[in-house]
Amino acid sequence: MSKATGKLAAIAAGVAALGFSAVALAGPSMTTKQLQEQFDKDVKGKTVVYIPVSYSVPLTRIWGETMEREAKALGIKFEVRDPDFNTQREEQLLSAMIAQHPDVLIVHNPNVQVLAPDLKRAERAGIYTIQVNMASKYKTDAFVGVQPNDLGMKMAEGVVAACGGAGARSHKIALMDGEVTSAYSIGIMQGATAVFKKHPDIQIVSNQAANWDSKTAHDKAATVLQAHPDLCAYMGWWSGQDVGVAQAVKQAGLQGKVKVFTTGGGEDPACDYLRQGLFYEDFSYQASLQAHQMMAIVKFLLQSHMKPGSFRTAIYSPVVALTKETVRPDSCTAISKK
Amino acid sequence: MAAIEEALADGPRATGSGGPPGRLARSFRRLSQEQVVLIVTAVLAVIFSALLPGFASLENLLTLLNGIAVLGILSLGAAIVIIGRGLDISQIASLAIGAAMTAVVMKGGGSLTWAISAGLLIALSIGLVNGFVIAFVEIPPLFATLATNLLVFGLARIFIVGSTYIVYVPDGAKGFLSLGGAVGGVPVPVLIFFGLAALVHAFLSRTSIGRFIYAHGDNPEAARLSGIPVRPLTILEYVLSATIGYVAGLVLMAMLSSIDTQIVMGAEIFNVILVAVLGGVSLVGGRGSVLSVLAGALLIGVMLNGMTRLNLSNDVQNIVRGLVLMAAIVLDNRLHPRDEETLRQGE
Questions:
Q1: CA-angle at A249, arms to A243 and A252, nearest 5°
Q2: Cβ A67 vs Cβ A291: under 8 Å
Q3: H helices of A164-269, where?
Q4: Residue A61: which of B163, B168, B265 has the nearest Cβ?
Q5: How far is Cα A321 from Cα A307, in angstroms, rounded to an integer?
Q6: pTM for this structure?
Q7: Scanning every residue of chain A, which has its alpha carbon at the shortest distance from the alpha carbon of B266?
Q8: Which end of chain A is more exposed for a tag (fewer CB within 10 A), N or C?
Q9: Residues B77, B98: Cα–Cα separation, whole Å
C-alpha cells in the first residue's frame, strides 16, 4: 500500500468512526458560541505547572517555551519550576506543587522510580498529571513522548540501509550509548538489537557509553576510528552528545565516509550538522510538536471534567528521519536567548 | 612484576626493623613516584600492544595524546597551585566560562582578538579573586575556590551563557577552530600541551619565582621569614592556574566546536587533581614537577585508549581504573613511607 492510499484509508476510517460515534452517543448539541463559552469557562485562567529535570537543556527549553507561547495566547497561566538536574530538589518541588494545587502538572521524570509516589499523590489531590518523554513506573492521566524501542528500531534500520548492502564501505558499525542503565537507552538498545539480529552481516565493532558527554564521546570515537578506519557508520543516542562523535570523524578525515546517525528533539545544532554533512541522519522526535501535543491534552483534560487519575492515555511522538536532503528550515527549533 | 612484589615485601619491614634492605629494594626506593607511574604505564602499554593490533602505532599514540591533551593542560595549572600548597576547584570555571565568553563574543560578530581578550579577562578575574581571598582574607583554598566556582557559574548563566548550558562556536570561526585540527599530522591540542608543559617546566625549575613556589609549598612560614613575598606569590599561583584553565577551555572548545558549561558542576576537577597527585605532585606541597603531570596524564591516556579499544563496558573500565590508581598509590606509599616531615605537614 502506498503512503497516499494509506493516508486516505486512515482518513476514511476516522470519518467513519466519528460518524458512527455521533449516531451512537449523540453528544450534547452545541452552538459555536456555547463551545467557545465552554472553552473559556474550563480552560481560561487555569494554571499549568511544568517541572523538567532541568530548564537549561535545549530539549526542555523547546518544550517550555513552545507551551508557554501557546498557553499565553489562550489565557492559560503557565509556570516553570527548575530543579536543575537535582533529583531531590525535583521531588521537593513536585511535593510543594501538589500543596499549591495547580490544575495541571507536566512532569519530566529523572528515572522510573523516584517521583512515582508523588505522581500518585498529585492525582489523588485532583490534579491532572502529564508525563513527558521519560515515563515513571506509575502511569498518570497522559504520557506524551517517544517510544525508545521504536526509535532504536528505526535508527538501526537506517544504519542497515546504509551499511548492509554490497555497495557499503564496510559492514562495520560502532555504537555510542548514553547512560546504559537509563530506560531510554535500554529501550533503544532492545529495538536496535532486534533489527541487527536479522542482519548478521552487520558487525558491531564497538559499543561504548559516553554518559551524554560530548568530550567523552569525542575521545572514545577517536580511539575507535583509529582502530577501525574502515568503519561504515556510528550510531549515537543523543545529538548533543554525538556532536563529539561527528567532530572526531571530521578530525580523522573521514567525514562523508563514516556516517553518523543520531537522534534528538530537533534542537540546535542538529540541523546545522546535517546541512554541513557532519550528521548523516537525525531521527527527530520533534520537541516543538511534542509541546503542542502536551498543550492539546491539557485543553482536552480540562474540558473533559473526568476525575484525575481515572484514565490513562499515551500520545506517542512520531519520529521523522532528517537528512541533508530532507532537513527544512523549521526542522529544528531555536531557543530564546534568555 | 615479581621483582616489584619482592621489593614491596622487603620495603616497609626493612624500614621498621632498621635492618639493611635488599639491593633491589634499595634501587626501587630510589625511584620517584613519576618513575613508578611511568613503569606502570609502560607495563600496561606492553599488555595492550600484545592484545590489540595497531595499539603500538604512531597514529594511535597521537590519538591517545589528543585525548588527554585538555586534561594534561589543566593538570599543569593544578600542579602549580598544589606545589604551592593550594588547591583550585574553580579551574573548570575558568575553562568553561572563559571559553563560553569567547564563543559568545565571536557569535556577536566580535573579532578573534577581542573574543580571546574577553575570555582571558574572565579567567584573570577568577584567578585574582581566588588569590586575594586565599592570601589576604586567609580562607582555606578548598572553600575559597569552591565558592568562586559556584559564584562564577551562577553569574555566567545569567549574564553570559543565556538560557541553555551549551554554547556553540559559529561556523565562520575557521581560524579559531583550527586549534582543534592538526599540523603535519600532529594534533594542535597535543602541540599546545607539550609547548605549555615545556614553558611551565622552565618556569618552575629555572626561574627564581618558580623556586619560590616550591619554597612556599614546602614551608610557607619559612618562605615568609626568608623574605619571599608569600601573599603576592599566592595570587600569582591562582592567576596562572586560571589562565592555564582558560587555555584548556579554548582547546576543548575548538575540538568540539562547542563548550558545555555544565562541566563546571561536574567531577572533572577531581580527574585533573588526580592526574597531578598520581604523578607525584603531593597535596602537602613543595613536591612534584611537570614530569609528574606528564606521567599521570600518560597513564590515564593509555588506560582510556586501551580499554575503549578492548570495548570494555564503563563499569569494568571504572573497576580497572580504580584498581590501577589504587595500586599506584599503594606502591608509592610503600616506597616512600610517611616520615616525620610529612607528618608534621599535616598529611
A1: 140
A2: yes
A3: 183-197, 214-227, 239-251
A4: B163
A5: 38
A6: 0.83
A7: A213
A8: C
A9: 15
